[in-house]
Structures are given as C-alpha cells and as structure tokens.
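FYI - complex with hypoxanthine, inputs then prediction.
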Amino acid sequence: MTQLAIIGGTGLTSLEGLDIHEKRTVITPYGKPSSELLFGNFHGQSVIFLPRHGGGHTVPPHRINYRANISALHQVGVEKIIAIAAVGGIRDDLPPGCLAVADQIIDYTYGREQSFYSDDFSSDKHLDFSYPYDEPLRQALLQAGKRLNIAIVDGGTYGATQGPRLETAAEIKRMAQDGCAMVGMTGMPEAYLARELNIQYATCALMVNWAAGLSEGIITMAEIEQTLAGGMAQVKQILADVIQSQ
Ligand code: HPA
C-alpha cells in the first residue's frame, strides 16, 4: 500500500478521528517542518498528518518551510499527498462553503524557496509542471464527493498569493482576468516541491469567503471561521472516504 499524507491548512490543524500512534520529529537538510509528523489510523487506514501552519497555527504562509515539510514526508516514504486548503472564492460558482478540486495554479508568491535543487542545479531539473496536480488523485477526491453526495467542483485555477495579508480588490480583479477561480496563500511552492520528489499531489479547497471586493464590505475572520467549521466537517468526510480508495 502506498503511504498517504494529509497536509492540513487553516481550520484543519488537527485531524479529529486520527488515532495517533506515533509523533515523529523529522529533521531534513532544509530544516524543520512545521510540526512533528503524526502517524496514525484514520477510519482504518494508515495516514500521516502534517499541519502546514504548525499544531498551534503559528507559522504564517510566507514563513512556512515548504521544503522541510515536503522533504520530511518524502523521507518517511510518502508517495501521495492530499493537501487541504481554505481559500477565497473568485469565480461566480465558488461561493463560501463550496468545495473544489483545483486543476491549475498561477503562482504570485515571491521570495520563497522554490526548489530542492537551488544549490545543486542542472538543466534536467527544469521539470514539467504543465499539469500541476496528479489527475488520478484529483479524480479520487471527486469520486469520494460523488459517493458521499457532497458537491465538489471539478477544476479551477488556484492563484497562490504571498500573504499574510489578504488581497486588495484590484488584485483580485486582476487575478480574475488572469483566470484564477480561487485564491490562497500556500499552494505554492508546495505543489511543485512535491513534483520534484515525484510525490502525487492534489488539493481539496474549501471556499471560506468571497475574495476581496467580491462581496459587500470587508472580509472578516468571523465570517471565515463560521464557514470553516461546517466546511471542514465535509472535508473530513471526504478524506475518510478517499483514503479507503488509495
Ligand atoms: N485570500 C487568500 N487566502 C485566503 C483567502 C483569501 O481571500 N481566504 C482564505 N485564504
């Protein structure tokens, strides 16, 4: 059986229902991951859980050591990653509470370490990234939604912004023109680093707010938290189902 990991984001810093049998501190050549790796059983399947922002949600998106996180998972034999992301909805059909399995990425981040090969580069390390997500894993997430009768939108471009601030209305307007369907702060370089280590990677995104300028007024944490609670309950159902199929 392939070893599967779940990277949890905002609203999923712990995985309720995970029967943890080991917490392992892994040190990588790139430093320390956001947290110890939690090895456990989730609905009868072996999984490894890593909270992207740390157990106490103290690591902001621009400070996450993405290389250490992915390298640590690779070191312990992970071959598949399901990434969970709380994002802002840009496209009309992605209102708060909606789930989507992204199929493309535009990277607006800067200053983040983008590669494991920065200090040891050669021309063969320009890897293909035309299709940033693993299609079978995307389909597995969509199938889980179908089985559970939970609506999940198939596809959409994830625009990765630097954070930790939310975007301006003008930035979102530009991102919409670029073709972004949703906006989050952690999708890159996480997805590419997984590709570099040949780890199958897909993201299940939960819209927690309309992106800046797309609703009346400003974005509040209260609004986000309210949507997170209900939405993450659905995400956990999907995770419980999808890992049975892996
Ligand atoms: N922008 C960026 N990241 C986010 C948002 C947003 O509106 N909502 C949740 N994560």
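Residues 221-244 form the longest helix (24 residues). The mean pLDDT is 95.
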